[in-house]
Amino acid sequence: MIFETHAHYDDESFDADRESLLGSMRENGVGTIINVGASFDGCLKSLGYANNHDFIYAAIGIHPENTEDYTSENVSWIRRHLNDDLVVAVGEIGLDYHWEKTGEGRIFQAKVFKEQLELAKEHKLPVIVHSREACEDTLEIIDSAAGGLKGVMHCFSYPKEIARKYVDMGFYVGVGGVVTFKNSKKLKEVVADTPIERILLETDCPYMAPEPFRGKRNDSTLIRYVAQEIARIKEITYDEVVEITEQNARALFMS
Predict the structure, then answer these.
(1) How far is CA 187 from CA 159, 169, 176, 212, in A?
(2) What Rg do the C-alpha atoms of the chain give, in angstroms?
(3) Which pLDDT tens digit goes with each residue over 76-108?
(4) pLDDT in tens, 105-120
(5) How far apart are CA 83 and CA 230, in angstroms?
């Protein structure tokens, strides 16, 4: 069964059909889902979904675009619930420089990122890392934090040489719908170069729908298109991709 390592079912685009959609996962070959918090509200909802569905787990953390949610009260809640058996990672955390152009804003993102990495180490949990247009700083912060830190580079968007560095550090590479795009040469090269034992399947739904659904709402039932493309690139079977990436996800999040 497919292990979907990164979904956002707390997004309002699922309000009309969330429960019926989640109820269809097993018949579509999806056995496990991690719902990933980005805002504090997303963290609350992710844990709620995990409590109400036996195949959903939660990741909780503050996304770099939502650093206004990084208050002492919210951090206390996150710290407390990192002990919950249904919380399997700290995330989605990291750096995003796409909209944050000022030095002050980037400095605060780095502070929030570093502190959440320390939370993960403190609770012996993996991290789910978002990095957009912040390649050098992300690598430097993770490298300096090291010391037993493990995790996945979500929605990987950098060259294969950078992927190798993360793999050498013990991280996994998250691959989603972008790999199916015709113009995704860089990510296809990453997939070809990265050992299948270091790749995780993800959708980032409702975003990043694969071809032939590009531009539409994404959901975990479409993750099979990602697995099919990885199988094509790696010249292995679809079933091998599903089996190995599930083993990878369980090794990272459930061990």
Answers:
(1) 7, 19, 10, 18
(2) 17
(3) 999 999 999 999 999 999 999 998 777 889 999
(4) 999 999 999 999 999 9
(5) 34
